[in-house]
Design a protein that fits this description.
The complex is a heterodimer of chains A (about 500) and B (about 55). Chain A has a domain of about 220 residues: FAD/NAD(P)-binding domain (3-Layer(bba) Sandwich), CATH 3.50.50. Helices cover about 25% and strands about 25% of the residues of chain A. Chain A has nine helices and 26 strands. The longest helix of chain B has 22 residues. The chains are: A alpha/beta (about 500), B mainly alpha (about 55). At the A-B interface, α6, β26 and α9 of A face α3 and α4 of B.
Amino acid sequence: MARLLVLGGGVAGHTAATFAADWLGRDHEVVVVTPNAKWNWIPSNIWVGVGQMSKEEVTFDLDPVYKKAGITYKQAKAVSLNPEGSGSSDKPYVTVEYTGQGKAGNSEEVTYDYLINATGPKLNFGATPGLGEGSQLGEHTVSVCTADHAQHAADELTKVLDKMRKGERQKILIGTGHGMCTCQGAAFEYIFNVEHEIRKAGLRDMADIKWISNESFMGDFGMGGLHMKVGGYVVSSRIFTESLFAERGVNYITGAHVNKVEKGKVSYELLDGSMGEETFDFSMLIPPFAGVGLKAYNKAGEDITDTVFAPNGFMKVDANYTPKPYEEWKASDWPLTYQNPTYKNIFAAGIAFAPPHLISKPAKSPNGTVINPTPPRTGMPSGIIGKAVAHSVCDLIKNGEGAPLHEASMAHMGAACVASAGKGWLDGTAAAMTVYPVVQDFEKYPGTGRDTDYTFGEIGLAGHWIKHILHYLFIYKAKLKPFWKIIPE
Amino acid sequence: MAIKPEEFNFAKHDQFNNAMIPGKFARALRTCKIWQFIRFIVLNIKMLIVVSKSH
């Protein structure tokens, strides 16, 4: 009997574990280690953040789902990795520290035959003074990265709406809280949902709403922007995005590295090297992501973290990590199988894998401050990678070490993204977009790096319907209800 | 002559002056239930094609 250990129970980890358990059956064991007791459909957190959904609607308990799937569930966080085993045994293991199940604080060594690292990110609030400390949210801004954060954001937003009702004009600042953030999409959705709720309340004239982002241009989204077919034209996402901001009367600051947050004020540096400040009454700033800080040790107990992980804490996989200038980046730099090059029984999926480089064009201020979005690896790509990696591991277990591995390069796959711009079955809107492929391939598509037949965007109520239906569909799938496997990632 | 709603934001900020702002008809289509139902079908088909190409 082989044991597959999956670290993380998010989109990538949950997808990998549930498919692996289904494919392997009861002949082998699948173990999931995740510090969370609940699964969270993160894309709907933005609706929790504006009080349009409850925390309970976007989460569910993992324990009964894993019991049903025959998965061993350990509510714990991974602390260190020993891929060569210890002095007394060759069996590789991960040291975990329990966060629940009545064993909080206890440590355990969990051995494995195959490991999928899908830990997701550490929300690195500590990267910007005042934004928070380590993974803890600070007191000056709010966040929608977790359901709890989003609930807190909704409570604070309610106070702001009350002030506006009393005739007090409010300044709202939403965007990214550091020069190297990813996930601009979540902030984009949140700003327009906040604007939508304020407009619905009849208070739009009482609010100054501003966007602040590390993107060098509007609509970069960490993917270097995209060109899409809209109304018979092929247009840049910059035009598409600027149009929405202008229509909704939302000002914006781009190319900004927020370097300090104080009560009611952020300080930032722009790509041209100039410094600025922005005051606010309510602010939601997304933190940068980092690896979860897993350490790795060899058989002799020596630290080999640098061998297994990139400096940002994400796991090295079969990508081309050779540093090279933007002009020499290739689609083939991106990983195919997500197998660790040193330890072949280790894979990484979702945010946990180290990308070879950015997708957006790198940018730096004259002061040397790096200000560019890091590559998004969430949502659909995360699920597809998780499934492909689980497929590879299952084949290795069933057919032996020579089994061919499954591929899921972000330079070969597309992504469908539905960005909410306001919730409501009759008055809601969302930008429904697809991009193909996620990572530009200028050798295959010399014009824009992507296939414009499959890269499109459109704003409307239909997009909202799709996003709302996907909310129910993906929670249904994650709960492993009947026919869950036929719902695509 | 009264300013048209879609032209109102152009004057608000220089950033908006060069942007493309939808007019009354384009905005109405965005929440027109019949049109959006058609777009719902079209978007789902287009997305399913991209999803199928990505697996």
